[in-house]
């Protein structure tokens, strides 16, 4: 890859950041947010918020960027009460009991709430980079031709809970990677520059890592991809559902919800989220739509492979 390609990428992304500039950003210490932070911190005094449980992995990487660019670092150490509040609000706002969505979006909710509580009304995020630059690990198993098809499908359906939660909290969420000019540029970048082997390891977002490693340090640039929940260390909160719900209650409630709500409960964590869901909403089953998820009877499109309501995958709409 030529230096000209890196220069072009950095210039177009810098222009996007300038168009979407905010005083604050969600700083997980991951590749995507670190790149945005390295650009934005040169343009204004920047505040980065990191939420984590104890010494979660995100903290170390976020501190590297905060120190390197003199970013005012707002750290929120999560408690069980914080997570219970985040989970309940994510279920309510997103209208879901999908465990993966709830875990990841709870981190986002806690981050945005921390900013709101500190008087901020706008924030930048790294949303969109994984979708544009092959950041998700599951995409790495496809060959280039299949990968091209999968990316185009992903670009059509990608959505981000940060914008939905931000709207609820009255925080303007700005997404430089999804800015029209940068998005169109990123979509034209050849796949072989987005995913590539480096030291016998296959890396997604290879071009971003290579072009920005000097600016965000190699340690951050070549950090392995990890889910928000893992980076923030909230896995321990999820594990408690296995002990807080006894086996007899679990069996009885699963039987009840299967019989009366036509919802398939997969485990104790799923049960916990569905119980909260039912505090806000009726059972998702409906005769209003032609196609429904076989696991919870919620409305889905006829070609859906995934249910946003319950998290079932893969599905064949009924």
Can you walk through the features of this model?
- There is one protein chain.
- By secondary structure, this protein is mainly alpha-helical.
- It has two domains: 3-236, 3-Layer(aba) Sandwich (Rossmann fold), CATH 3.40.50.620; 246-280, no CATH class.
- Helix content is 53%, strand content 9%.
- It is built from 17 helices and seven strands.
- It has helices at residues 3-19, 31-40, 57-68, 80-94, 99-117, 129-133, 144-157, 161-169, 180-188, 191-194, 206-216, 218-221, 228-231, 235-239, 241-244, 247-260, 268-280, and strands at 24-26, 47-52, 72-77, 122-124, 172-174, 195-198, 201-204.
- The strands form three sheets. It has a three-stranded parallel sheet, sandwiched between helices.
- Helix 3 (57-68) links the parallel strand 2 (47-52) and strand 3 (72-77).
- The longest helix is centred in the middle third of the chain and has 19 residues, at 99-117.
- The protein is globular.
- The mean pLDDT is 94.
